[in-house]
Structure of Alpha/beta hydrolase:
Amino acid sequence: MSNIIKVDDLDVIIEGSGEETIVMIHGWPDTYRLWDKQVEVLKDKYRCVRFTLPGYELDSNRGMYSLEEIISKINSVVDAVSDGQPVTLLLHDWGCFFGYQFYLRNEIKVNRIIGVDIGDAGSIEHELSLKVKLFMFSYQMWLALAWKLGGSLGDAMTRKMAKMLKAPGDQKLITSSMTYSYYWKWSKTLTGKPLGNLPLVVNCPLLFMYGENKPGMFHSKEWEHKMACIPGNKVVPFNTRHWIMAEEPEEFNRVMLEWLEH
């Protein structure tokens, strides 16, 4: 049985009644539906909380949301569902970026983190070849332009890129309203303005899973090794692309459950 509550203009879905609360945050171009297969196996033992990022639903108001605004929304959700107890974060893609930044400002509210495919991207240690840099810049600028153009053209551009990158979500649910984070990132980066994100330092237990079958990594080998060497942490590579939970759901769930119950 699920319960839906309204928190800071977000529809927050709560499933399961376990003592530990797991807050799930997706990225581009997904919605809360990304976690369907994870909720199926978690809800018998855990309290699963998920929502769609602002602007990502078809009926959402198109708008530009800053890092501070999204962190504030995550904080409101956590406060509303946690009963004052620290939660576990399950994060992917932009959900990792926003979730990590929430954690760095609110460590006392987070018990442990499951990060999927995004680590210390953008750090000094995160080195990429010129080919990979060009690839990442190209697809992200395409999505930033899709946001700027908007309308049917922006939507078509967004769906085309999602298809090229083999995103698993329903194409009909994908619009350019989901791409504001790319415009936010690059409009600041290209004009020399800071993003305002804190360096990623994870002091709580971390399970990090990433796909190896993609053009480039969103984390450095140094960070991966450092995280893997910390007692209680685990780093697991998969022979998948970016959306591990959709490409290899059974193995993903097995690793996740094993770590949570350890």
Summary: The first helix runs from residue 36 to 42. The chain has a mean pLDDT of 96. The domain at 2-128+198-260 is CATH 3.40.50.1820 (Rossmann fold). Residues 219 and 244 are 15 Å apart (CA to CA).
